[in-house]
């Protein structure tokens, strides 16, 4: 094993050693449970100091790739991020007796299309007769391709957008790789990348999404393997990419063919903005994820994944060793919903309702001098003087919102909270007053009114 590790290391820095060992683990050359050579033995074989190897081992342990058991040594372990360290676990406030929970980021159940008709129509379908059938129902694949923002090489269906992100990360990211994300971004993406041992770099945003100049600087400085984007209804800010911004970002990425572009279009049909994708400019490098949880129902557990055959095939082949495919019964329900005029009308009504709820609360907050963004989707990103004070103030009213810190790779220069505005029905004025007081909590009464939160520009 010592010789295997020594032969795999071509960069003798701590990061290089950790990356080489991680590649051996990922390839199965160092199987789970294998005992690693001692720090001193590795240092002697590589001609480096024990401190350098110790730093590499610490990085691997932090990422969950190995376990250190004191005098017993260090062992290869499947990377698992403890729940207490997950950003996702910190989104719920955990403060007070919550009577109105706006921390969840979930759609309004009453605005989801009814499944009754779809379930009745597919209930007697013969969809489970063979393990060898195609992973995606052919009619569903046809319907998805018709909706795709660019022609993908290959398309498959997985168990939701987060499952898609997890599987794509496993296919394209290795320990120590640099990965670019929007700052702020969806916390589970950061959890997944941390579990993979990636070095995450946050790229600043403005009102149109990731800034092209900041992307260009990060590409030059970090030589990343992937960039993760939300093309519309960005969670948490609600921003979306314009056609012009898509072209600008694609121009920055054109000179970096090694970078895979991963787009999470999680809001789907409830987004007010039309579908956009860098795949229209760079189709051979863009992996697009189309989510249906927020538009058609979280319990459908379905998302479509399309893009370069190399990536999609790697995901599909790996699934053969696990679930194999996503339920064809649920796929048939989704197909029925996608082709049902009644469901389309219900989703259009939901989109209009979410738009009204966002714009109403934004207007009420602006009248009270509070800075917030919510251009699309179901979330609102509110600037506050002090995050903890704001959440304590809201908890006193039985209201829970999500803290802003877990969304941020690096601080933005102002504190924020995320409010699931899509769950707010008719009490916008009352809530706006409570939110405004919370935004000022801990500030001595002052307010700041900016069109976009400090740190975006």
From TrEMBL:
| One Pfam family it belongs to | Aminotran_1_2
**Domain HTH gntR-type spans what residues?**
11-79
Which residues, by range, are in coiled-coil regions? none
The GO terms this record gives for MF are: DNA binding; DNA-binding transcription factor activity; pyridoxal phosphate binding
Keyword rRNA-binding in the entry? The reply is no
**Record CDD domains:** AAT_like, WHTH_GntR
Which key words tag this protein in UniProt? DNA-binding, Pyridoxal phosphate, Transcription, Transcription regulation
- Domain of life the protein comes from: Bacteria
Matching entries from InterPro entries are given as: Aminotransferase_I/II_large, HTH_trans_reg/aminotransferase, PyrdxlP-dep_Trfase, PyrdxlP-dep_Trfase_major, Tscrpt_reg_HTH_GntR, WH-like_DNA-bd_sf, WH_DNA-bd_sf
Q: Cite the PANTHER family for this sequence.
A: HTH-TYPE TRANSCRIPTIONAL REGULATORY PROTEIN GABR, TRANSCRIPTIONAL REGULATORY PROTEIN
Q: Which family does it belong to?
A: In the C-terminal section; belongs to the class-I pyridoxal-phosphate-dependent aminotransferase family.
Protein name per its UniProtKB record: GntR family transcriptional regulator
* Species this protein is from: Couchioplanes caeruleus subsp. caeruleus
